[in-house]
Amino acid sequence: MSHRFKYLLGEEDIPRSWYNLQADLPKPLPPVIHPGTLQPIGPDDLAPLFPMALIGQEVSQERHIEIPEPVLEAYRLWRPTPLHRAWRLEQALDTPAHIYYKNESVSPVGSHKLNTAIPQVFYNQQEGVKALTTETGAGQWGSALAMAAQYFGLSLEVYMVKVSYQQKPYRRSMIQAYGAEVTPSPSEKTHAGRAILEKFPDSTGSLGIAISEAVEAAASSGGKKKYSLGSVLNHVLMHQTVIGEESLKQMELAGEYPDVVIGCVGGGSNFGGFAIPFVRENLVRGKKTRVLAVEPMASPSLTKGQYVYDFGDTAATTPLMKMYTLGHSFIPAPIHAGGLRYHGMAPLICHLYDLKLIEAVAHHQNPVFEAAVTFARAEGIIPAPEAAHAIKSAIDEALRCKKSGKREVIAFNLSGHGHFDMAAYDDYFAKKLEDYEYPAAAVKAALAELPKVS
Ligand SMILES: Cc1ncc(COP(=O)(O)O)c(C=O)c1O
Question: What's the CA gap between 332 and 325, in Å, rounded?
Fold first, then answer.
């Protein structure tokens, strides 16, 4: 019997609206608070950084938010993305499990990040903004926002975590090819960057530091520039729900429904985008899918962090968000999954974890790369190191099924390809990848610097 490898939708099947889980939460999200007054922040606090349309989406309780036509038109460049049945991976693992993956690597920039880059730039353009700033970890977000900025005619300044700037020179070239300016972070360009360099001259940077620099560049521009964040915030996760909504339709075409859905978590956006529509089906329709978030052992905010109010950035300039955090001053080891090196996690994902609606697990990078290579040899796609965390857990689940003889349905999100991450694969093949032990002392020190919120 010939196998069906892909479940494809037509352009007319791209979702017309984003799904907002806030409308269906059993308990509302804790408010974001002002670090000075410790009172919930209002739209005016965010207005120097974000356009009003996105601030509105951040706090909206509407279940569905319509996707504007120019955004849908841009989505049509690559959406809907395929859902694959990983037949060859199943055979390689000799598992009775059925494995599916949603392939977000087919976007022009190679990852899911474009799903939110496009609407974020669009809403800024609608409100007359001409220039944006942002940070990027692995360079996937920077290249996505650079493409979107080019698409809608805005200029863009990207602060790229220094270790990624060095490890991934071609992501940097890609950002430049789309016309954006890219600076290694920490840099001499901002107070935040200079303060870090003074304390740690050899700092390899982190997402938290790069966020501080990009926020400062926008906040000190006299209103000329706004800031754009590629993960963590509610509106970002909401834009990403196109992934899960399409997947639900595609699973229906496949005639199956997942027992477990899996995604890697850095700030929480690809996991949220893929998993949240399945969480809704659990909450609203009584489905029983397990929902699994996968993080790196070098930065295990969900599995080892504390659920408290903390800053989103290293320089302690953002509003305070309640999240599982390792402390804003914690700087994760320079693992190759640069997009997962974040001290905190999206408040929405943390809320779900706190309510026990999702599970979490952490992996070291060597077994993650082993899983990436197993996947690449079976399915042909070289995954991004971040996405390989989800693959590692999908393989673990499939092997669990092999042991128990259970035929479960496993679906994971392949958030991006690793074509610009081959130096990481080289290090893996040369046995140069370090499995950094959980940095208990550094986390303890960082947690001691948490803001005091009663
Ligand atoms: C391919 C890929 N997957 C996952 C992530 C992690 O981010 P998030 O948790 O926001 O999806 C990144 C971040 O850079 C990424 O580039």
Answer: 12
pLDDT for 438 equals 84
What confidence tens digit (pLDDT) does each residue in 424-439 have?
999 999 999 999 988 8
pLDDT at 167: 85
Question: Which residues have a Cβ under 8 Å from the Cβ of 336 and sit 6 or more positions away?
Answer: 167, 365, 369, 385, 421, 424, 427, 433
**CA of 440: how far to CAs of 217, 299, 417, 444, in Å?**
33, 11, 31, 6
User: Which residues have C-beta within 8 Å of that of residue 12, sequence separation ≥ 6?
Assistant: none
Long-range contacts, stretch 189-194, CB < 8 angstroms, 24+ apart: 189/213, 189/217, 190/216, 190/217, 191/216, 191/315, 192/216, 192/313, 192/314, 192/315, 192/317, 193/159
Supply the residue whose CA is at minimum distance from atom 15 of ligand 1: 339
Atom in ligand 1 nearest the alpha carbon of residue 340: 6
Question: In sequence order, what are the residues at sequence separation of 6 or more whose Cβ sits closer than 8 angstroms to the Cβ of residue 5?
Answer: 84, 85, 87
Q: Which numbered atom of ligand 1 lies nearest the CA of 417?
A: 1
Q: What is the pLDDT of residue 264?
A: 98
pLDDT above 70 as % of the chain:
100
Residues of the chain falling short of pLDDT 50? none
What's residue 59's pLDDT?
A: 95
Is the beta carbon of 415 within 6 A of some atom in ligand 1? yes
**Alpha carbon distances (Å) from 374 to 86, 102, 104, 233, 367:** 12, 17, 19, 33, 10
Using CA of residue 337, residue 350, residue 410, residue 76, what is the dihedral sign? negative
